[in-house]
Amino acid sequence: FGGQLATIKVIEDNTLVRAALETPGFGRVLVVDGGGSLRCALVGDQLASLGVKHGWAGIIVYGCIRDSQAISGMPIGVQALGTHPRKSIKKGEGAADIPVTFAGITFKPGAWLYADDDGLVVTANRMSPT
Question: Is residue 128 included in any domain, yes or no?
Fold first, then answer.
């Protein structure tokens, strides 16, 4: 999966993730910098379904997801550090549409992200298929 990216930075709170996925995705990829927390999930099947409904191509989570079996059958790409059954808190804290850095990559809103089972690539411009 791939597309132009949008970013969210949160810590164990998925309120802004939900808000983003409720907006038109236009084939974009949502990059969620969850600080690498493995204590709760930031995306589950309900949020992934919102992403599908609103036209998001994928979700990258620097943190955990839940309901991974259900998500794997959905027409949206999702990658995360791992899974956790616990839901996140809901305080509405965090930031959107800012550069976020993790795993040695800086993700800037408007850049392009391409991902598969082996990893991901971020480019400043859209790549042409070869």
Answer: no
Q: Which residues are 113's β-sheet partners?
A: 3, 122
Domain limits for position 14: 2-123
d(CA 119, CA 23): 26
Contact assessment for residue 57 and residue 28, using Cβ atoms and an 8 Å cutoff: yes
Number of independent structural domains in the chain: 1
Q: What is the pLDDT along the chain (130 residues), one digit of tens a residue?
A: 999 999 999 999 999 999 999 999 999 999 999 999 999 999 999 999 999 999 999 999 999 999 999 999 999 999 999 999 999 999 999 999 999 999 999 999 999 999 999 999 999 999 887 6
Report the predicted TM-score, pTM, of the whole model to 2 decimal places.
0.96
Is residue 7 in some structural domain? yes
Q: DSSP states of 24-43 as a string? A: --TT-EEEEE-TT--SSEEE
